Amino acid sequence: MEVNEMARNSKQTSRPVASKASKILKDGRYGKDSKSVAGSALAQTRPGKKK
Questions:
Q1: Which residues of the chain have pLDDT under 70?
Q2: In the chain, where are the structural domains located?
Q3: Where is this chain compositionally biased, Polar residues type (predicted)?
Q4: Cα 34 to Cα 15, 37, 41, distances in angstroms
Q5: Angstrom distance (rounded) from CA 41 to CA 45
Q6: Selection from 14, 21, 27 nearest residue 40 by Cα
Q7: What is the pLDDT of residue 17?
Q8: Helix (H, G, I), strand (E, B) or coil at 15
């Protein structure tokens, strides 16, 4: 069986969770594991609207 298309994850991070993840990445009090999870959450958000 040949797979022509990679599996897609249609789930996306909600806006409130993305906001919290952004704050975690900016805050120096969190460790690398927390920042890794926050980065993964932000990578799964929709692109924002350009101003």
A1: 1-7, 9, 50-51
A2: 15-44
A3: 7-16
A4: 18, 5, 11
A5: 7
A6: 21
A7: 96
A8: helix
